[in-house]
Design a protein that fits this description.
Length: about 400
């Protein structure tokens, strides 16, 4: 697979990503209809057949189980598995060819040996019936329209299939704008700070590589936050910062960059050094600064448009200082979606102020399979045990008192 800078930090095969999005558009209406007709029946049957199928494939030596995380498992899986082990929950991961991130969890309920078994992909949800919102919450365009009707703050904009529509959306909203795939995660093929027709066309083409539909919307103002909701309650908020340094009025940007990269936490495996390459150079040019310049005190210089840890981004847990109105807004989203596990990405300038008091703040996307490890391994602030909240919900018998 050819390396793609726009996919960093996690690479994606463009053709497969595009096809999967197309298939989602095609089969989505079918599964929505099946949900209405059979309600929980389809999910229940699938859940009942999952474990026998896994065991059969292992018996036929077409698959295998692993009883511990390996180097290919992400940190979302690892922190969840670590919490399971702490609670005495037996976890196994099912592997069949490229298929992974499918799990079986078994917990002994009493001294008589009675057990409870869960099968799930990625992270578990209670019961077997999927919430209707699970079908659309990852769809940025659909989410935006539904949230607007619900008076949940979102950016103005729209979704475009072709270049002409993209330009039309760009011309009717405030600048700058952002372009991104309608379906996708981890900021892949996303472009920000767009303020010309040429740039919006370039951003549209970049996003189009992963999705036939592209979102063009106003760029919100402030920092990027992730709020994670479990069972309708906000259990963690983390700020995600781009790779950056702060000026002191004394040292050059080069010296500040070198000093920041000496931070022990940046030696991996979770956080990494800030990369200086042609894209970083372009970002510095946009901010009208060079490596040999001395930034004034308190000026923040960013080296990338991405917030990913792999590109040098950092995280700070801010749950305790989140304003009550922001908590209400996030829990309103959980109630509206009626789903027990949601990651909400939103932008605002000050998490300690109510969102109503901040211009161009709002929700940018929701995630049905959130990276809970963002809360478990922050660079700054106190870690939050989101895996514990999730296990308490799906397997309350395992709760540690």
């Amino acid at each position: 697979m050819k390396h793609c800078k726009d996919c960093e930090p996690a690479q994606e095969i463009h053709a497969l990503a595009y096809i999967s999005v197309v298939l989602d558009y095609i089969d989505g209406p079918f599964f929505n209809m099946m949900d209405r007709i059979f309600k929980t029946t389809v999910d229940t049957v699938a859940d009942m057949l999952a474990l026998p199928f896994f065991n059969l494939m292992v018996f036929l030596r077409l698959a295998h189980f692993s009883d511990a995380p390996d180097e290919k498992d992400n940190y979302r899986t690892r922190c969840f598995w670590e919490e399971a082990k702490r609670r005495g929950i037996e976890m196994k991961e099912f592997h069949m060819g490229p298929l992974r991130d499918v799990f079986v969890a078994k917990y002994t309920l009493n001294e008589n040996g009675k057990t409870k078994v869960l099968t799930f992909s990625g992270l578990p949800r209670p019961g077997t019936a999927a919430s209707p919102a699970l079908r659309w919450m990852d769809n940025k365009g659909t989410m935006n329209k539904k949230f607007k009707k619900e008076n949940i703050p979102v950016a103005n904009g729209g979704v475009a299939w072709n270049k002409k529509k993209a330009i039309h959306i760009y011309e009717r909203v405030e600048k700058p704008v952002i372009t991104k795939p309608n379906l996708g995660s981890r900021s892949r093929h996303t472009t920000i700070h767009i303020d010309t027709r040429e740039a919006v066309i370039a951003g549209f083409r970049k996003a189009k590589k992963l999705s036939p539909l592209v979102v063009i919307e106003e760029e919100l103002r402030g920092d990027l936050y992730r709020g994670t909701l479990v069972d309708g309650k906000l259990v963690g908020v983390v700020r995600r910062d781009q790779p950056e340094v702060k000026g002191d009025g004394i040292h050059t940007l080069q010296a500040l960059w070198e000093e920041e990269n000496k931070r022990p936490e940046r030696s991996g495996p979770i956080f990494h050094a800030i990369v200086f390459d042609e894209r970083a150079e372009a970002e510095l040019k946009r901010q009208n600064i060079k490596m040999e310049d001395i930034p004034e005190a308190e000026r923040v210089i960013k080296f990338s448009q991405k917030t990913s840890r792999g590109s040098g981004g950092t995280t700070t847990e801010v749950t305790e200082i989140t304003h009550l109105e922001n908590i209400k807004m996030l829990e309103h989203i959980a109630s509206f979606l009626n789903d027990p596990l949601i990651g909400v990405d939103f932008i605002m300038e000050d998490i300690t102020m109510a969102w109503q008091e901040q211009k161009r703040s709002g929700v940018i996307e929701c995630n049905s399979l959130p990276f809970i490890d963002l809360h478990h391994y922050p660079l700054f602030g106190t870690a939050k045990n989101i895996a514990g909240h999730l296990w308490d919900m799906v397997l309350p018998e395992s709760k540690i008192k």
